[in-house]
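The methods section describes the discrete structure representation at length, but only in general terms. What matters is that the chain and its backbone geometry are given together, residue for residue. Nothing conveys this as quickly as seeing an actual entry. For illustration, here is how one protein appears when written out as sequence plus structure tokens:
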Amino acid sequence: MTQDDLLARAQAWLAEDPDPETREELAKLIEGGPSDELAARFAGTLQFGTAGLRGEIGAGPMRMNRSVVIRAAAGLAAYLKAKEPAQREGGAGLVVIGYDARYKSADFARDTAAVMIGAGLRAAVLPRPLPTPVLAYAIRHLGAVAGVEVTASHNPPRDNGYKVYLGDGSQIVPPADAEIAAEIDAVRSLHDVPRPETGWETLGDEVLDAYLARTDAVLTPGSPRTARTVYTAMHGVGKDVVTAAFARAGFPPPALVAAQAEPDPAFPTVAFPNPEEPGAMDLAFEAARAVDPDIVIANDPDADRCAVAVPDASVEGGWRMLRGDEVGALLAAHLVHKGARGVFAESIVSSSLLGRIAEAAGVGYEETLTGFKWIARVDGLRYGYEEALGYCVDPEGVRDKDGITAALLVAELASVLKEQNRTLTDLLDDLAVAHGLHATDQLSVRVEDLSVIANAMSTLRERPPVHLAGLTVTTAEDLTKGTESLPPTDGLRYYLEGEHMARVIVRPSGTEPKLKCYLEVVVPVADASELVTARAKGAEILAAIKRDLSEAAGL
């Protein structure tokens, strides 16, 4: 693109931009003349995919802003109107819109509602910033044809995003994403998109009340409700809904991490508002040391993920974050104990322990590609999870990950064990003895330059590792070709031979500029006396795999 073309594109974008803040930002960039920053804003357009849209807030087609959102909404509306279900008996289909407390979220929600009304659809907006699971629930509860959640989940403060669900309450998957993207590309000018100033409904608390009533379904009537909890909302929107759900269920009120309890789009106490990130749980652990609860629970900012920590005298500070795979296994074991039937499902990057638990319990089991957009579509789903702290424990209510119902179920399990003078850690030990110690870890590389990820994937495809941690790589699968049970995806999967079974999966993140490598080692355990040795052995092998894989990928 020549400098003249760049300035012309920027001027054309400026002329249509409905947001005074981004107009001022872009006008200053144009005034400064062609620059690398201006070129980056107009190097293309944010791509709409199965994660919807997600990116840094700012002016231009490569950023999240009102212009980009209006185009996305217009494309979604055109897609819905082209589909038969969009026109229901009694009038146009309903689109439900939710939003979190990030910068611009409320603006993006209102713009989406206006576009839907202008396109001849109906629109209803949730009454205030609320957890993503409430929106996912509302779609099915209200019989909507689609739903939109404005959120960037646990991304940095400068980001926002746009997540799309269809009428079954599940996130979009191919080919819907490509068809919506094509409709977005067909929007020539924002002047062609009608956006009336009124016409949509702002919902009251009825949907939230119905969601809260539904949360009772995950608990066993009369089960113990004694576990004491420290809870952090991580500056997000989970606090009010979690405390209401715990009160309804009869649990002790969670002790709140006050500095992180209220929504704050600046996320001032954390570098990244993700419970998995180093330091994010420090304030929660500080609170736990003061009040001595049974467990610590954290949500991410839109409360669709749930993190759990347990007392552990062997670690500095006395508290240990459980891995998502550990919580996933605990919830599965609890559901089996409660008599749950149906299919237990997980993404391919999650621990194979779920399959062992399902097989022993005689329930169905299925592996899917990464993401709840795939897990939620498993036929007969009763429980689904992915290692990134996502759990679906009530698929009839919320066909997506739900950090609130997961928190309730964890609290119930902790209460049941507490009555037996046992803990979540004790149950993890039981599972290791029964099925082998499934040790997992992750090599996650955040990059500024996305070519680093592409180069690493290319290097591994051209020169796949022969040995990792001294173990022979017996199978190397390029998942872009798909498998008998999985559609194609950008990923690599390795199986290693030896006494200790091991598996490695490498893939680019779908929502962040990260290369993610998922590692698992299964160490046989004869009885509880071997657990300490088995954990040490598992950690040693995982560290060696991480080192060798990093070298093989050129990282």
